[in-house]
Amino acid sequence: MKVDDVYVTPNPTSPTRPVIIDEKMCTGCNACVDVCPADVFIPNPRKGGPPILVYIDECWYCSPCVDVCPVEGAIRLNYPLMWRTPWMRKETGRRYWVGMKEPPPPNTKPLA
Ligand code: SF4
Ligand code: SF4
What we know:
Layout: H1 3-7, E1 19-21, H2 31-35, E2 41-42, E3 52-53, H3 64-68, E4 75-77, E5 87-88, E6 95-96
Antiparallel strand pairs: 1-4, 2-3, 5-6
The site of one iron/sulfur cluster (SF4) has 14 residues, from helix 3.
């Protein structure tokens, strides 16, 4: 049995995947492992391998793991469905969503 077979077993009680790592892009630098405040990952015992998600239910969707990754696109958050709802500003047509990197300033317009 390979060591990956032991560690990569999905958590059967929770099929959620808060973080998705592209194994082809990831260099295994473990910057995301070090920065995660909830210790969701552990380093891969195989050198250069992608981190292994162990405590997926602990994820806060706070995103420093994505921000610190030196390889654009190697890791991304998989927001729960109810968080993905985008909304649009009527005046500009610009779309917004929860967790976006540069959120708009708060709407301070008085209610009509
Ligand atoms: S979103 Fe936050 S809690 Fe979740 S894996 Fe990334 S750094 Fe850790
Ligand atoms: S920070 Fe990015 S490249 Fe480094 S281990 Fe995490 S996902 Fe892979």
